[in-house]
Inverse folding.
């Protein structure tokens, strides 16, 4: 496996847009046909030698206003996806899905937004640390992160450090 040259690359970090020349080292997705949420990750190396880990949380889940699963303000479907049909390529939240055949208020339909994170460092160990899932005093390395690291090791040996960890 070899790195893929990329020029005029763009990576999002929240609402920020990062632009740079560099190369794609590895990418992976957890997308499955029967899931309406998934993660995509890429690791790139800039022409200046920095590594950029891009994580994207994707979603095609729809909600009705007032759904108890909504934790923050969501945009209107029509504003985010003008011209799209919510019945094609999107899925309903199980809690607020209208009964089959029942009409719903299309203009008030809400859609979850994709979420973007980026980690930038010249040190591969910082990128590796950002791949760990950390919660309530413990951490674990998800399978998608392990696969991404395995792929990275094929093109950049400096990522081999993830295979050995000194634990105190």
């Amino acid at each position: 496996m070899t790195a893929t040259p990329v020029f005029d690359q763009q990576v999002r970090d929240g609402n920020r847009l990062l632009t740079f020349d560099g190369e794609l080292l590895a990418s992976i997705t957890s997308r499955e046909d029967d899931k309406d949420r998934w993660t995509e990750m890429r690791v790139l190396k800039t022409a200046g030698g920095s590594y950029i880990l891009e994580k994207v949380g994707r979603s095609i889940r729809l909600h009705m206003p007032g759904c108890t699963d909504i934790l923050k303000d969501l945009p209107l479907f029509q504003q985010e996806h003008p011209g799209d049909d919510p019945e094609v390529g999107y899925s309903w939240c199980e809690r607020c899905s209208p009964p089959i055949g029942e009409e719903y208020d299309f203009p008030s339909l809400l859609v979850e937004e994709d979420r973007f994170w980026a980690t930038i460092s010249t040190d591969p160990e910082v990128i590796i640390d950002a791949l760990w899932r950390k919660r309530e005093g413990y951490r674990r390395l998800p399978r998608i992160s392990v696969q991404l690291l395995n792929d990275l090791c094929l093109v950049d040996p400096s990522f081999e450090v993830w295979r050995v960890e000194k634990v105190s």
